[in-house]
User: Fold this.
Amino acid sequence: MADWKNPPRLFIPGPVKVDDDVLQQMARPTLGHRGKEYSTLQAETVDMLKKVLFTEQNVFLSTSSGSGIWEAAIRNCIAPDETVLATCCGAFSDKWADVAELCGRRVERLKVEWGQPTTPELIEAKLAEGNYAAVTLVYNETSTGLTNPVYDISKMMKAKYPDVLVFVDTVSGMVGLPLHFDELGWDVAFASVQKAFAIPPGFTVAAVSHRALEKSKSVPNRGYYFNFEMWAKSAAKSQTLVTPTVQHIMALNYQCNKLLKEGMENVWARHKAMAEFVRGWAQEKFEIFCDEQYASNTLTTVKNTRGINVAETIKAIQEKHNTIFGNGYGKLKEETFRIAHMGDITMDDLKELLGWIDEEIG
Ligand SMILES: Cc1ncc(COP(=O)(O)O)c(C=O)c1O
Assistant:
């Protein structure tokens, strides 16, 4: 029987493995969330996150998974009579469009085939057709292993549609991929911590622009738990609106310290080097699912050109080495498989995993 007390080493694209030193941070005695000690922890952590995200605007801490901010961005910043342009290139970008509809907003979808990027040209053409309050983008589509050209998209948005808000799901991108929030002119960007922050799941970091926060003040029925205006009032006191999972913030503080010591350029380069290693292997043994130009530096989606039984291969490696990687997502199951190379996963870890896959596939 699968034993949760003897968990497999994780190469699935989130949650990813968490090192013992990070876990130990979460075993620290807890703090009262209205006390001075807690506020010091939050202030320190948010200051570091601002450096990690290259922003001087708002950074909020949310005791929720990343999906909460899909909803928060829409409910706070889009009035009921406004329309969102949802770019869709895979399972997670599709889901965000669904969430916006579930929040009762008008949504227009700009779809491309799974594995294809959403380009600035496509967005520009679509924006020209209608009156949109915001665009939703997924930086790194975890279902397909594709990184959208968000820097080019942002350049176009700033030049042509500076008044349209830009919401970016950076769940599997933040930390692993370049992210200069202010320079990009984004309005909301967020990531849950079980990806490249390499922390157990259940917590999310969100950057919110001043203009998004201002706009939210005029939007009715924003609710309570994810209310940006209330979040900002609490954040001004280095607190959160509700009781946070303090232990997550301790781990985040620890990870941010490490990231800043390493330097974000180096962190991104480390992810790139791991990605190039896995892509080299994938190209030799299989193919990469997306065009290499758009292949992600935090996970690789491998096209199963040899028709291996992916589920059986994962099972065999789990049985022998107590290690798992990801099958393809949704409709891409068996057609593809996914290997994470983000957070505290190392090149040595990857060499070991790829060696084991080689042994299985012969
Ligand atoms: C790109 C992307 N967006 C959103 C989510 C949802 O995040 P969470 O599971 O933290 O709610 C995921 C989860 O894997 C994801 O990969």
In short: The radius of gyration is 20 Å. DSSP finds 13 helices and 14 strands in the chain. Residues 14, 65-67, 92, 138, 142, 169, 171-172, 192 surround pyridoxal-5'-phosphate (CB under 6 Å).
